[in-house]
Design a protein that fits this description.
The complex is a heterodimer. Chain A is an alpha/beta fold. Chain A is built from five helices and seven strands, in the order H-H-E-E-H-E-H-E-H-E-E-E. Chain A has a four-stranded mixed beta sheet with strand order 4-7-6-5. By secondary structure, chain B is mainly alpha-helical. Chain B is built from ten helices and no strands. Chain B is globular, with a radius of gyration of 18 Å. The mean pLDDT of chain B is 96. The chains are: A alpha/beta, B mainly alpha.
């Protein structure tokens, strides 16, 4: 199952079963990443006959979150869970630190450079270390804009192979 | 005003700030000076509108009359809004857009940083999220201000004019009501009025670096947004923003 954060009681087989199912729910914008890879699943709980899955939004305005919530619910209903509730929690705030290592590898293969390091203050103040080109691997890269095709991405270019690429911003 | 009313008023203030500023920026979609900046502006608008969803949903809960985020966004009239005046200003030229967003983002980062310690769980959680996005907004706009101020004669003059024009709407961001005082006493919100001098220190230092003349800290200021006394501009914003929802009341996706 890899590094699942913050989920209480992963000893319970039925919690583990639900988490495994969530490996098949993908980010609609970045379809190689599951919601587990993204680190947005905060908790899985059975409360009486209700299965409650807590998720945390990545960016405040991320338009994929509504769809992801719907996809999670649908996946669980399809698998026989009759009563599913999706809860959104804001705190602690989602951070790119919660992306799994496996998720970062998938991002790079998909053509998106993963967040370089821990989402510490330095990153937010613009002192990024070198970002790696997902095509040729060079770190001789330049930022074009801190805002890219989606809220989570920035636009960079490679000075070696000359191709532009998306970078998943540290937050 | 009791505490519940005070909290409702405050959450409207925060939600309306984000909603109206976000909407203003979204007006620049496909009208940016070049593609990457068009995308940057709309990304920032998306952050702000996303924040307004969280805040206005919470406001509806606090009010307790069953109003949703959509009810509050689309079915209130201008005097019922509580957005700061600076959020209502037209976008103007590129220097003007960046100057007002810079002033607002610096206020937001100071406010959110303190709001993270709020005794209200929802507001504290919201602040912990929004502050990280706001850091990118501050960085983006402050870099542009340096380029404009310390750029060409034209860019410098346009930024100076923008700063001079926008200045009288900045104090309004820090307006504090009687209701706020109840919330401050309960540790729900920080003392906004006390942040104003910190805000001035930060923006004046940055403007000086950009070789821009900084208006006086005690220059004349326009007020009234927390009493629903807004700029004429707000009625045009709402006219456009609300028209579809109002044409089909009760509709849902």
């Amino acid at each position: 199952m890899g590094d699942i954060h913050h989920i209480s009681n992963t000893d319970a087989p039925r919690v583990r079963e639900v988490i495994k199912m969530l490996d098949e729910v993908f980010d609609p914008e970045i379809p190689v990443l599951s919601v587990n890879d993204m680190g947005i699943i905060r908790d899985v709980k059975f409360i009486d006959d209700v299965l409650e899955v807590s998720i945390t939004p990545t960016y405040s305005g991320c338009p994929a979150m509504d769809m992801i919530a719907g996809d999670i619910k649908r996946k669980l209903l399809e698998n026989g869970y009759g009563n599913v509730k999706i809860k959104t929690v804001l705190s602690p705030a989602w951070t790119t630190d919660w992306l799994t290592e496996n998720g970062k590898v998938k991002l790079m293969k998909y053509g998106i450079s993963p967040p370089e390091h821990s989402a510490n203050k330095k990153a937010l103040l613009g002192e990024e270390t070198a970002v790696k080109c997902p095509r040729c691997g060079s770190t001789h890269t330049t930022m074009i804009s801190n805002f890219g095709s989606t809220a989570c991405k920035a636009l960079w270019k490679c000075e070696e192979c000359k191709e532009p690429f998306d970078y998943f911003k540290c937050i | 005003m009791n505490k519940q009313e005070a909290l409702f008023d405050l959450t409207l203030r925060l939600g309306d700030n984000s909603l109206i500023f976000g909407h203003r920026l979204s007006e620049l979609c496909s009208k940016g000076p070049f593609l990457e900046e068009d995308i940057a502006t709309t990304n920032i608008a998306l952050d702000l509108v996303g924040q307004s969803r969280i805040l206005l949903s919470y406001a509806g809960q606090v009010e307790g009359k069953g109003r949703s985020e959509d009810d509050l966004a689309y079915f209130r009239s201008a005097p019922q809004f509580r957005c700061a005046l600076i959020a209502q200003l037209p976008n103007g030229d590129f220097a003007y857009t960046n100057a007002k967003l810079y002033f607002y983002s610096v206020y937001a980062s100071l406010f959110l940083s303190a709001l993270m310690k709020s005794k209200d769980e929802t507001l504290a959680g919201f602040a912990g999220k929004a502050i990280k996005e706001t850091a990118y907004h501050v960085r983006h706009t402050s870099e542009w201000l340096l380029r404009f101020g310390d750029g060409t004669e034209e860019s410098h003059n346009r930024l100076q004019k923008a700063v001079d024009d926008i200045w009288m709407y900045t104090a309004d961001m820090f307006a504090t009501t009687e209701g706020d005082k109840l919330l401050i006493a309960d540790g729900i919100i920080p003392d906004l009025a006390a942040m104003k001098s910190e805000w001035y220190k930060i923006v004046s230092a940055h403007l000086k670096t950009a070789t821009i003349n900084v208006p006086a800290e005690d220059a004349w200021q326009q007020h009234g947004s927390r009493e629903g006394k807004h700029l004429e501009a707000l009625t045009y914003i709402l006219g456009e923003m609300q028209v579809v929802a109002r044409a089909h009341p009760g509709a849902s996706w």
